[in-house]
Amino acid sequence: MRVGDAAEAVFVEVRDNGAPLSIEELSRAFDPFFVGRGTTVGGSLAVLWEIAQAMGGEARAARLTSGGMCTTLFMPVRM
């Protein structure tokens, strides 16, 4: 896990070392009840996406070259 900030946003990044999602699976990772890697992964990621959108933020998922994936939540800093 990594936490950081920039001028207008803060972020939380979580990485795992499980089996990597395919390109198709990655494109659907935030879909509710998406099944990838043989388990339901999209349920919790769909909730993350909804929270991020409701608060003006963004959620991203990426494949790691070493295997696994990285999910990042960006949230705006409100002054």
Descriptors for this entry?
79 residues; alpha+beta; two-stranded antiparallel sheet; 2 helices; 6 strands
Structure summary, number of beta strands: 6
Strand-residue proportion: 35-45%
Give helix and strand order, one letter per element, not per position: EEHEEHEE
SS field, number of helical segments = 2
Mean pLDDT, nearest integer? 81
Helical proportion, percent range: 10-25%
Global outline: flat
Provide a descriptive summary of the structure in words.
- This protein has 79 residues and is an alpha+beta fold.
- The protein has helices at residues 23-27, 42-54; strands at 2-5, 9-15, 35-36, 39-40, 58-63, 69-76.
- A hairpin with a 3-residue loop joins strand 1 (2-5) and strand 2 (9-15).
- It is flat, with a radius of gyration of 13 Å.
Would you summarize the structure shown here?
By secondary structure, the chain is α+β, with helices and mostly antiparallel strands.
SSE arrangement:
Elements: E1 2-5, E2 9-15, H1 23-27, E3 35-36, E4 39-40, H2 42-54, E5 58-63, E6 69-76
Antiparallel strand pairs: 1-2, 2-6, 3-4, 5-6
